[in-house]
Specification:
Shape: elongated
CATH class of the largest domain: Alpha Beta
Order of helices and strands: HEHEHEHEHEEHEHHHHHH
Radius of gyration: 21 Å
Number of domains: 2
CATH topology of the largest domain: Rossmann fold
Distance between the termini: 23 Å
CATH superfamily of the largest domain: NAD(P)-binding Rossmann-like Domain
Number of strands: 7
Number of helices: 12
Largest sheet: 5 strands, mixed
Amino acid sequence: MTEAMIKGLISKNAYPKEDIIACAPSESTRRRVSENLGISMYENAHEIADLADVLVLAVKPKQIQGVLKDEIPHLTSDHLLISIAAGVRIDTLNSYVPDCKIVRVMPNHCCMVLEGAAGYTLGRGVTKKDEDFVKKILAALGLAVKVKEEDMDAVAGVCGSLPAFAYMFIRAVAETGVKNGLSEETALELAAQSVIGAGKMVLESGKTPAELIDGVCSPGGATIEGVKVLNEKDFEKITSESIEAVIRRSKEMSKN
């Protein structure tokens, strides 16, 4: 995810590569990222904390204490910390770096192709300038919306996990296309592009999903037969239950 963010910032000309540094404990990772993205890499977080005023925390939740408490506990109010660690609340982060300004972000997997969706929430002391900086970073990766922190678990369900469900849908559609004579490559391309197009229709047409469904389903046509099957199988109920399961787990992670 971090590499995707750096790639987006550079490719969208948001910031030059000379202004971006990163760290990773693995030498092979440092070498690969430096060669692929052209940025300077360091081994430890404490090496970059004094060189940057904005830090992106992109580690697993279980690693946060080690990074914030042991490597960079000296962060001050001059630092802005952007955390993309799933399920970790701002007050938990502030318990390790109490003076630091913190923004919590929930991005999704599609940031890797610069078509991501993310929710972000602001901690205490974060200024309008800080928020504008965060929005500039996230805009290079796709769409970002500001939410209250108590809504971040819902964001995890609505966009954080949705790519996995979409991949399952695309796979099922493509496999059916193959069964009916299409090549695997053709079926995948058609299914994936149709999902991209459907998303753009929702965002850009000004119509509701219900109106768009009606626009595709001609009376007596083919599509409406498929919609009937989905309705009979409670497609929307199953989808809702899947999202609710993600939200429940996200809340559990936040509490822990």
